[in-house]
């Protein structure tokens, strides 16, 4: 990453951190009635729920960075508004997921990203006695080159690349959430995860329409 890119990331990260602190505080209230109740009622997070929250938070973080890399002053107001909406939704969901992790005293990021997906594979194979495959890469993520290119573009070119990158990013997020659903035990976490699927599916369809209006194709996925 270039020096400019690092400075930009640090600046955006500072703003994101401040917003997340507010989101996390709000997110903790509806999940658990009180911190003392966690131990008293035996409420826990499974390994899959912990891994999913860690990885999806990281995945969401890049979506927020992507909306910040878009030069909103040079693009169609419709695209700029969409970027703001996506950013707000993803920041709220990051706050919720990191709130879970903080409440249960779990790390905000995992040492082995996407390792929880191995449980999905084992479940699909009927728990056969065979070595688990290596965890898959986080789907739909943009490269730093992609993000830097987006940051340099303006106008229609910026709109197209933003829509292409965000659509692929949403495809990855939707797939991750679908894979996690059979592994989630908490009704609250399942409901919120299903909400992520619903919201991102709607946004994906809307972005597809905007991209089609601009005569541009989707990026290959995965």
Automatic annotation (TrEMBL):
Residues 49-208 form the DUF305 domain. InterPro entries: DUF305_CopM-like, Ferritin-like. PANTHER family: SLL0788 PROTEIN. This is DUF305 domain-containing protein. It comes from Nocardia terpenica.
